[in-house]
Design a protein that fits this description.
Radius of gyration: 19 Å
Number of helices: 4
CATH architecture: 4-Layer Sandwich
CATH topology: Double-stranded beta-helix
Number of strands: 17
Distance between the termini: 52 Å
C-alpha cells in the first residue's frame, strides 16, 4: 500500500494506492472517491465475532470514532481510494515497525493497512480532568496508518521533556510517559492566561501536534450561532 498526502496543509486528502487484491480499513465516511472495481465491505470489526464485535464497536464510539468501519479491496488491476476528514486540515501517514505503538486521539484516526491492529486504550481519569477524552486508539503491528488534524500536523521529536496543550495532541509514541499538569507556575496564572491544563511528555519518541483544537474552535463559534426560527 502506498500513500500520497495531497493539498497540504489546509484541505488535505490522502490517496491510497493498492496493489491487486490488497486491502485496507478506513473510518466510515472518509472515502471521497475510488476506482470503479474497488470492493468495499462494511462491518463493526473484522477480527471479532458475536458480542465481542459489537462491544469493540461501542468502545470505538467512546473513543470518538464511528461504529462501522469500511474495508476496501482492490480489483485485479489494483486501484486507488481518496480519503478526507470532516474538518478542514492536515493528514499524515505514520509507519509502524517492530514493537512500536502509537496512541491516537479521539477523532484523528482515518485508515490503516491490514498489518496494523487498532484497539481501545484507557488513559484513566487524568484525561477527564483535562477536558479531553479518556479513551485513545492504540495502533500496533506492522504497516502504515493515516491520521488527520484540525489545522496543520507537525511532528516533534522528544528527547527529555516537552509540553503540549491537551487539545493540540493528534498522536504520540507509547514510549513517552505523560501527565496532565498546570501550564504556568500557579493555577491562577494557568487559567487567567488562557492555557489551563497541559500535557507533559517525558522520554524519547514523537508527538504529532495539530495547530488548532476543534474544542476551542467550537467554543468560539457557539455564541455566534443563531437558533433557527420556526416557519
Amino acid at each position: 500500500m502506498n500513500i500520497e498526502i495531497l493539498k497540504r496543509p489546509s484541505n488535505t486528502t490522502a490517496k491510497v494506492i493498492l496493489d491487486p487484491s490488497e486491502t485496507f480499513t478506513a473510518e466510515g465516511g472518509a472515502m471521497i472517491a475510488m476506482s470503479g472495481d474497488m470492493n468495499m465491505e462494511t462491518s463493526i470489526s473484522r477480527n471479532e465475532k458475536g458480542a465481542k464485535k459489537f462491544l469493540k464497536g461501542i468502545a470505538r464510539q467512546f473513543g470518538g470514532e464511528g461504529l462501522f468501519m469500511n474495508h476496501f479491496t482492490a480489483g485485479d488491476k489494483g486501484g486507488d481510494v481518496f480519503l478526507a476528514s470532516s474538518l478542514p486540515g492536515d493528514m499524515a501517514s505514520i509507519e509502524l515497525k517492530g514493537d512500536r505503538i502509537v496512541k491516537v486521539q479521539n477523532g484523528s484516526f482515518v485508515a490503516h493497512e491490514s498489518g496494523v491492529t487498532m484497539k481501545i486504550s484507557w488513559e484513566g481519569l487524568k484525561n477527564m480532568f483535562s477536558g479531553e477524552n479518556m479513551i485513545w486508539l492504540e495502533m500496533s503491528g506492522s504497516g502504515k496508518f493515516i491520521i488527520n488534524a484540525f489545522g496543520m500536523i507537525y511532528p516533534v521529536e522528544v528527547d527529555g521533556e516537552y509540553i503540549v496543550d491537551t487539545g493540540n495532541i493528534a498522536a504520540f509514541d507509547d514510549s513517552l510517559e505523560f501527565k496532565i499538569s498546570k501550564a504556568g507556575n500557579s493555577w491562577v496564572s494557568s487559567f487567567l492566561g488562557g492555557e489551563g491544563l497541559v500535557c507533559r511528555f517525558k522520554g524519547k519518541g514523537t508527538v504529532w501536534c495539530q495547530t488548532h483544537a476543534d474544542r476551542s474552535f467550537g467554543m468560539k463559534l457557539t455564541p455566534l450561532l443563531t437558533p433557527r426560527k420556526g416557519n
